[in-house]
Amino acid sequence: MKVHLHQAIQWYFRTPVFLRLFLTVAFFMIFFGAVIHWVEPDAFPTIFDGIWWAVITGSTVGYGDYVPLSTFGRVIGIFLIIAGGGLVTFYMATVSASTVKYERNLSEGKVDYRGSNHIIIVGWNERTKQLLNMITDYIDEENIVLIDKSLDQLGYQEYKLHYVNGDASEDKTLKKARISDARCMIITSDPSKEEHQADQISILTTVAARGMNPDLFIITEILLKNQVTNARRAGADTVIRSNDFMSTLFFHELYREAHIKPFDTLVAQLSSQQYKQITVPDEMVGETFKYCALSFLEQEELLLGMEQNGELYINPPSQSILKKEDHLIVLSNLSE
């Protein structure tokens, strides 16, 4: 008996504060309800009537539908107001304080993510904001977790994401983001670092993520061309060389007057299109690139290239045979 009592006491003190308070309040209400029923059975015909009176009195609501008539019953009511009323008030204050603290921790990135099948984005910058806006505009439901160590807080009501504060290359941070149940991870380059240092951080983060989730699809942004191979060795499924892409846009914008009409609108056209990377559909496995390109054209989509054996090919030979493990690069309208 003593052993069970000791275990019960240990369990009680190990529970969260608000739960302990709730159990204490519930015990007092039941206790006083049972006592008043025993003292005045005529005024309180059932134990539930007594509990109802105890809850209404202890919470200082006081409907007056049940009242003690005897002196002893009123003394019990006085003790209930002194003990139970204070406990109820303290419980409500504790719950309110816990709610405020939870919301503050949520904004400061201190709360672990509990979902699954989500996308993890590393780094808070303009590219991340634009990506979030695109996802919000064109994807109905998507769970996103942001990992960043530079932000003191991020309004969880302003952005549709879960914020985790910390270094994405550390296991404890990745665990808080629940990387084991994530579907995809996007690692953006840190704009506050030098290019070589930023690439090293991205590669280190890729290694850590791959080690904790071998099946995770990882997209890594790399600035220097000579670091692309290292990013792939680290476990990146797709490597984005943002410097090359931006340089191409700058070049076409700078010299567009020297180009024929179709090139003049290159930047404008890109803004209304979206690139998709998809696995080869089962019905296209073993078919030629030309056959697949025609199939996509019938759907008003443009097949640009493919990723095969870790290499990206834009406009490959038309007779190239597609394999099941290949990925296709498709251009389609954002409105679709």
Structural class: alpha/beta
From the alpha-carbon coordinates, what is the Rg to the nearest angstrom? 31 Å
Structural shape: elongated
Percentage beta strand: 15-25%
Total tally of structural domains: 3
Order of helices and strands: HHHHEHEEHEHEHEHHHEHEEE
Average pLDDT figure: 80
Number of strands: 10
- CATH architecture type of the largest domain: 3-Layer(aba) Sandwich
Biggest sheet architecture: 6 strands, parallel
Counting DSSP H or I runs of 4 or more residues, the number of helices is 12
Protein name: Potassium channel protein YugO
Subcellular location: Cell membrane
Organism: Pontibacillus salipaludis
InterPro entries: K_chnl_dom (IPR013099), NAD(P)-bd_dom_sf (IPR036291), RCK_N (IPR003148), Trk_Ktr_HKT_K-transport (IPR050721)
SSE topology sketch:
Blueprint: H1 2-14, H2 17-39, H3 47-58, H4 71-107, E1 119-122, H5 126-138, E2 144-148, E3 162-165, H6 171-176, E4 184-187, H7 195-212, E5 217-222, H8 228-234, E6 238-241, H9 242-254, H10 261-264, H11 266-271, E7 273-279, H12 289-298, E8 302-308, E9 311-314, E10 327-333
Your description of this structure?
It is found in: Cell membrane. With about 325 residues, this protein is α/β, with parallel strands linked by helices. It folds into 3 domains: about 1-105, Helix Hairpins; about 110-265, Rossmann fold, CATH 3.40.50; about 270-335, Regulator of K+ conductance, C-terminal domain (Alpha-Beta Plaits, 2-Layer Sandwich). It is built from 12 helices and 10 strands. It has helices spanning about 1-15, 15-40, 45-60, 70-105, 125-140, 170-175, 195-210, 230-235, 240-255, 260-265, 265-270, 290-300, and strands at about 120, 145-150, 160-165, 185, 215-220, 240, 275-280, 300-310, 310-315, 325-335. It has a 6-stranded parallel β-sheet. Strands 7-10-8-9 form a 4-stranded antiparallel β-sheet. The longest helix is centred in the first third of the chain and has 37 residues, at about 70-105.
